[in-house]
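Kindly inspect the following:
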Amino acid sequence: MTNKILLAIDPGASKPHAYALFKDEKLVDYGLIRNCEELNYLVMTRQPEMAVIEDQHIAKNMRAGLKLAQAAGGLAELLKYMDVRVRLIPAREWTKAFMRWRKGWPPRKAYLPAVVKITQLSEDINLEKYTKAQTEDICCAVQIGRYWLRRAD
């Protein structure tokens, strides 16, 4: 996936969606998408060829799972409408690659190395202006993008 732009998104059910943008397999931008106008601006200015979106199949309750599925599906449809190729990636698929599971905080000892990676990543890319939850979401978007880039090679 060289010389291409990839948009990775960690959707939120009732909160902003976290994104990470890669160009030539390097992280060039990250942040939050709060509405359709911000997504449209991001796509029009950065022109990603492909987007990868986390597809969360399991949530703490059915209502949350349904909201996450609707958010991922809505994002996918909007991006397809903007002529961006879209791939939904199951959460378990990419988290296995980074040994990072969404099972509450603090994590179990078996998952600690992956959480340390997320913490180091948040320090590396300077996420001071974001809340703890937003920082974790942005780091997840970065990891989703990195997973896809490694897998696509």
